[in-house]
Predict the 3D structure of the following.
Amino acid sequence: MGLHFVLRFVRNGHAVLLLDRSASRAQRIRRSGLTSTGLSTLKVSGSSFSVSASAAALKKALRGSFPDWIFVFVKAHQTAEAVRRLIPLIGPGTVVVTLQNGRGLKERIARATGAGRVLEGFLTEGVTKISDTKIRHAADGAVVLDKNADRPSDVARLARLLRRAGFAVRIRRDFEQAQWTKLIANACINPLGALGDVPNGALAKPPLEPVVRRVADECVTVLKKSGLPLRLKKIQNSVLTLARKTARNMNSMAQDLRRGRPTERAFILGPFLEEARRLKIRVPLLRTLDTLLNSAERRYL
């Protein structure tokens, strides 16, 4: 997803710096540039933005200034290490934005960067990584932001930035409920798609469609008990509609397992399991999915 944003921002004329976790991948991106196919056909050269695995090198490229915005796109479990590397790039006016999967990441980042400079949101777009330098934009969606954030002026500035770059933006008063609803979709789609090694569209038809409905049922049961006014049928239909809309997309968890990498199960299933434990609610299917993913990670890793 990070490469998707780099492409959009570079094409919109912004000065972009990409801090990669891998020096060899950064070199490949610098040499070949980036390409997007599918719904967004874009290509930018490697010389049109700065890319490095070294924060010090990027800081040197800034020539004494600091970025206005830093977007964090690493996997949720990689956040602490990524933010530690980003610290030298954060200036007095820098705003850090997390659009990652899961809950609680804003607070984790704020503990390292200082309170008041972190904005959170989530994405409903679908992007599949083809290679280190090529992605396929599989499904349109939006960036959803919190209208009740501590600094509303920053939310408004961020929305303008994203819209100019071609992103649809939704600013929600009920952000917490919307975020949980998005997490339900992740919990329904990502584990089943990953364990079955199937694209999202397979989840919207038998034999997996009834399982998706059961996963949604357990998630909604937990959240209704915690006080969120959710309607099961509406949630189930929304998840299945999303699966159909992103039918060709291999979700991020499935891509991680294919590449032999840890998944974000702790940040997608974990919040529901923690709430279920707190409220003493049985969620056998969610626990089974978590156990199977844990086993799959051990096997592939």
Remarks:
- The chain has two domains: 2-173, 176-300.
